[in-house]
Amino acid sequence: MPPTTAAQVGQRIAYYRRVARPRMTQQQLATAAFVSLGTIRKVERGERGVSDDTLDNIAAALGVDPSRLVADREHVSTRIRDALPALSVAIATYDLPDDGPVRPLPELRTAVAQATAWRLSAQYLQIARTIPDLLGELARAVAAAPPADAQEVVRLLVTAYRSADAVAYKYGARDLSARLIELMRWAAPTAQDPLLTATVGYVRTETFFAARAHAAGLRALEQTLDACPAPTDPQTIAARGALHMRAAVIAGRAGQGNAADEHLNEAHLLGDRVREGIYQGTAFGPDSVRIHEVSVAVSLGDDHVGRAFDVAREWAPPADMPAERRSGFYVELARAQLWGGMADDAFESLKVARRIAPQHTREHPWVREDAATLRRLKRADADSLTNFAEWCHAD
Known about the structure:
The protein is mostly helical. The chain folds into four domains: about 1-70, Orthogonal Bundle (434 Repressor (Amino-terminal Domain)), CATH 1.10.260; about 75-170, no CATH class; about 195-300; about 305-395. It has 20 helices and two strands. The longest helix is centred in the middle third of the chain and has 24 residues, at about 145-170. The protein is globular, with a radius of gyration of 22 Å.
């Protein structure tokens, strides 16, 4: 880390330590981060810098993304991109696992659950640091699993592939993302779990978004819905509801307004039958459906932005929703506000998105496009808007 950032990093670490719930002492932070108390004291005073590994440990102990602690946000993005070749190796050798240790099944569950938590909170650096080794270990576990454990180990592998895909997709490695999704589709049938198959169908839609093959993506989702179990319990209700949410958005992108409304209505009906929560690694419930109302409005184009404003006037995503989903709401609301001639509101929404999930916001292509547009529209507002545009690499 550059020496000039040591004081800023120390101040941020001290701030997040004090606002942690429950509040942490320096000793508690040192213990949780596996460093000495003296190190924490010197870092917070700005008397010494920290290595990347130590910074990651401190961030994990504080429960925040490492990008919140550093002044050089580009450094975080570079580290994520530098990790992509190792991920590519793990994918290329999926059926040729090397020799190595395999942790007991409970520990593998914990590791995969942690990767999922990082995905939902948009902590992509944490995933990028650990997922290549985890995929290799899970490949070994699949090869060596006794029959009684085989299906669960495959479910863990598919779930880990999904976390890896989040990094690849968000950081523009679309070919890598497509390969991960194909591996999910290859592995999922072995688990003989229809809900896992539904989850893979949900994630596969990314490839259609990336290719702008929206009509084909809608057909694929509707086929997945046909095969999805009947909605008889919270898990099956959420699986179908999530598919309807995503189908509504891609139908909007395909210009099929009636289909978008039909799927959104189905999602509403299903959302009202469960509590908001995480089901099969996907957030679903009444709040998630509201967020997708905004997504559908934006997908249908600027003639429909009033629908987004109707949602935003009376509701905002609660703080306990996953950070990635909350930030996405404000990114899409910003686009609607920009189309509606509300430039100042759009900029405020983008700043809220950045506060919630900086990595997700920074890499979102709409953020770059809209920040560039705002910069052209408001040339007089130089400092904060220019800084934001430079932060997200807007043209």
